[in-house]
Structures are given as C-alpha cells and as structure tokens.
Amino acid sequence: MAQLEAQDLAQAVVNRMADCQEPRFKQVMTSLVKHAHAFVQDVQLTPEEWMTAIQFLTATGKMCDEKRQEFILLSDTLGISMLVVAIDQARGAAAYKAGNGEDVPTEATVQGPFYWEGAPELELGADIGAGNSGEPCYYHGRVTDLAGKPIAHCALDVWSGDGEGFYDMQKGVNVGMALRARFYTDAQGNYRFWSIKPTFYPVPDDGPVGGMLRRMGRHPNRPGHMHMMLHAPGHERLTTHIFVANSPYIDSDAVFGVRNSLIVDFASHAPGKAADGRVMDKPYHSAHYDFRLVPAA
C-alpha cells in the first residue's frame, strides 16, 4: 500500500466512502472530513492537544444524563445550535416571504437543554408560577398563520427557570416538574396563563463546557426569557423564547439566542384586577406576544 502524505489523508478518507448508499449522509461526512482535516492543518494540532480534545469530549458525554445534556450546552455556547436554527428557518420561510398581506413569521431560537417532555396539560389562564420564587406575570397573546387567520387548538408548551434562575431539572433527581405546562389556544387562537417574570441566569458551568467558557474568557449568563414551543396541524413547529427587555446580558447571551423581534417589554402593574379578572394583592407584570406560524411544507 502506498504511503499517504498528510495533505492526502482527507481525500483518502472521502474515497473510502465510494460505496455509501446514502447521498445526504455521504455529502455531510465528506464535508466534515475535509473541514476537520483542514482545521488540524490550519492550527497544526499537536498530539497532546488532540488527546486533550478527546478527553474533553469524553467528559462532556459522562456529564449527560436524562435531565442534563452537556452536548446541547456545548453546541449552544459555540453558536452552532443557533446557526442550525437560523438556517432551518430561512429554508422554511423562503417560500413564504412577507408581502401580499402576509406577516413575517415569528423567529425561532434555540431549544436549550431544559426541555422536558410530558409537561401537564392545563386550562387556559392557569397559574404555573404559584409556589415558586419570582414575581408573578400574566402572559397572553394570539397565534395565527401568516395571513392573520387564528389557529385554534394550537399546542403551546412553556417553561422557564424560577426567580433565582434555576430550572426544575437542576434541583435534584427527585424533584418533579415546575414552571412548565402545555396549553391549547381557544377558537380565536388566544392563549393566556400565569407564571413568573423570568430572570437572567448562568447556564450550568460546573462541567467541561463551563471550564471551556472560563478559558475563553466568557461569562455563562443568559438574559431572562420564557421558552415557548408551538405546534399545530398543517404548520411548522416553532421553538422560540420571549426575552425580557432590558434584562442583564440581553446583548451578550451565552448561547447567542436573542433576536430583536423576540424582545418584549414586560409591563409592571400595581395590585388590583388583572386583564383576566384575577385580583392581585401584590405587584405583578404582564407580557403580550402574538405568534405567526409558517404553513407546513
């Protein structure tokens, strides 16, 4: 067998995939091999540095369990998750550009590592913030298609951290779900529920990703936000947030997820009757946001 020189190795690996029967997989792996080899050449990676990288990835895998996904955190903090989201949404929206009376679709952002399947289904107007730290907040708005037609019975999954910035998943293996639920829009596409006003918080930084951020000279913080995931028959699923305007770190989100269209002014209110008729005996906040979904391809 002829000896391969360093500059020939990438093409040799690609050539070994000649019998691959999956065109898209072959395309992705070909590009991955070429870029990975180019990276090693570019920085002239040493064996010690490559072993450090392998140990880092091994430690990242060991940090994962059913409630913590360190690889998602790694992807988020390197901006890759947001890049994938942006490319995917641009692809889906290309055929539905604004115009002819259509609205611009609501922008997507990262899912993050704290989504938990199976949140309780609750009636519109329910309070998921009761018993948790944080200032009460009333969330309301409407879900429509791009032409402004209301989308009835659209599932709306919501979740956030508490007033100290901690998610239920971070509070121990025996702690159940909190500050998360699934709601369904009414016949007019309206949604409403009570929770808390989210605060900024650090992403988990006690693992290998946290160590990476510190070596980069970066902070681990995210601005306050409420996660929203919407899905309705005949429409593309939307995973997004609404961000608290003027929250600390709104301009330096550790996972690069902020989009200007998702920043919301959270109004402050004195004690009294809220918009849904609930009487509040202490100050509270409210946040209004309307979602516009893209038709399914």
Number of strands: 14
The largest β sheet comes out as: 5 strands, mixed
Q: Which architecture of the largest domain would the CATH scheme give at its second level?
A: Sandwich
The overall number of domains is 2
Proportion of β residues?
15-25%
Keywords:
alpha+beta; 21% strand; Protocatechuate 3,4-Dioxygenase, subunit A; 297 residues; single chain; 6 helices; 14 strands; 5-stranded mixed beta sheet
Textual characterization of the structure:
A hairpin with a 6-residue loop joins strand 7 and strand 8. The chain has six helices and 14 strands. Helix 1 packs antiparallel against helix 2. By secondary structure, it is of the alpha+beta class. The radius of gyration is 23 Å and the shape is globular. It has two domains: 41 residues; 224 residues, Protocatechuate 3,4-Dioxygenase, subunit A, CATH 2.60.130.
Task: Write a compact overview of the structure shown.
This protein is α+β, with helices and mostly antiparallel strands. Helices cover 25% and strands 21% of the residues.
SSE blueprint:
Blueprint: H1 9-15, H2 23-43, H3 47-62, H4 70-77, H5 80-93, E1 136-145, E2 155-159, E3 180-184, E4 190-196, E5 201-202, H6 208-216, E6 221-222, E7 225-231, E8 238-244, E9 263-264, E10 267-269, E11 272-273, E12 279-280, E13 284-288, E14 291-293
Helix pairs in contact: 1-2
